[in-house]
TrEMBL record:
InterPro entries: FolB_dom, GTP-CH-I_C/QueF. One of its GO terms (biological process) is folic acid biosynthetic process. Keywords: Folate biosynthesis. Gene3D superfamilies: 3.30.1130.10. Residues 176-286 form the Dihydroneopterin aldolase/epimerase domain. GO terms for molecular function: dihydroneopterin aldolase activity. SUPFAM superfamilies: Tetrahydrobiopterin biosynthesis enzymes-like. This is Dihydroneopterin aldolase/epimerase domain-containing protein. It comes from Ophiocordyceps australis.
Length: 300
């Protein structure tokens, strides 16, 4: 079996797609999924899932546009939607599927092959052909899988090399997101802000994630637990602390730290801090390896 391509930073994939101009997109297709962990960490409980798909075409579908009829140079959004719903709602035999398993099977159903290039046995006729498609991006969002936030999502993105080069994608990204976790904290430099808690909104993105299990529920619990003891004066200090919490968690207390760990983005907003603005915000992207090196340096 051909090995899966190494995980690629999402920003590098975005840059590789700059020269393509044709895109077919389906957003937030409503489905029901059974398997991935819910907000309490329970598996095999039915919950809503929103699926989005973006298909980047190698070139403008000129014949479809000229003939005003669907041709082989295009991907029809209706067929794409039906294929997504069919894949997501069929059971995975003899397994308790994680969110990653649901999404990777959807990838295989749409492409006819897994990310490692292995042909998808007994799968439906592939809708996404690498001769036509340059990139496929799939995002599965669980809006009810968070006790504190607005949901979690997992995205996989693959860029296909030129036709004939290889079966699977030449670049592949996996990104987990926890959106808008609400946390009451004492935070701020002003005297009034030190007297009581205010809500902050924390969003986490973990790019190049190699853990295929449903880590979002225990990660949220760990963030809430450790953040509850913090009382920083600045957003910058809070974000720095949160990046350390996330980095330790995804590397299992630094035991799984590699030469280049996952890229972690932490964004914190203070909605009530500025009365006439939505929210001041500070955002930071760091590599878990760099956070580990920094933590070791501080100990010396």
């Amino acid at each position: 079996m051909t090995p899966s391509p190494p995980l690629t930073p999402l920003c590098k994939i975005r840059a590789a797609l700059d020269n393509y101009s044709a895109l077919v997109r389906v957003r937030n297709l409503q489905t029901t999924v059974v398997g991935p962990a819910d907000a309490w960490g329970r598996q095999m409980m039915p919950q809503p899932m929103l699926v989005s798909a973006s298909v980047t075409l190698r070139q403008h579908p000129a014949s479809t546009a000229a003939d005003d009829a669907l041709g082989s140079d295009a991907v029809h959004y209706g067929l794409l939607s039906k294929a997504i719903k069919t894949s997501v709602e069929k059971p995975l035999p003899e397994q308790v599927p994680s969110l990653d398993m649901v999404l990777t099977r959807l990838w295989a159903d749409l492409c006819g092959a897994h990310a490692d290039g292995q042909q998808h046995a007994n799968g439906p006729k592939p809708l996404v052909h690498r001769d036509t498609v340059a990139c496929l991006e799939l995002t599965a969002r669980l809006p009810k899988a968070s006790l504190r936030g607005e949901g979690v999502s997992l995205a996989i993105v693959g860029v296909f090399a030129h036709p004939g080069a290889m079966v699977g994608p030449s670049m592949y990204a996996r990104t987990l997101s926890l959106d808008c976790l609400k946390m009451p904290l004492v935070i701020g430099v002003n005297d009034n802000e030190r007297k009581s808690q205010q809500l902050v909104s924390v969003s986490i993105q973990i790019d190049m994630l190699d853990d295929l299990s449903d880590i979002y529920t225990p990660l949220e619990a760990q963030l809430v637990k450790e953040a509850s003891s913090l009382s920083p004066k600045t957003l910058e200090s809070l974000v720095d602390s949160l990046t350390h919490i996330v980095s330790r968690f995804v590397t299992r207390q630094w035991h799984d730290i590699a030469e280049s760990g996952p890229n972690i983005t932490v964004m914190v907003e203070k909605p009530t801090a500025v009365p006439f603005a939505d929210a001041p915000c500070f955002q930071l992207t760091v590599n878990a390896r760099d956070v580990y090196v920094s933590s070791q340096t501080r100990r010396v």
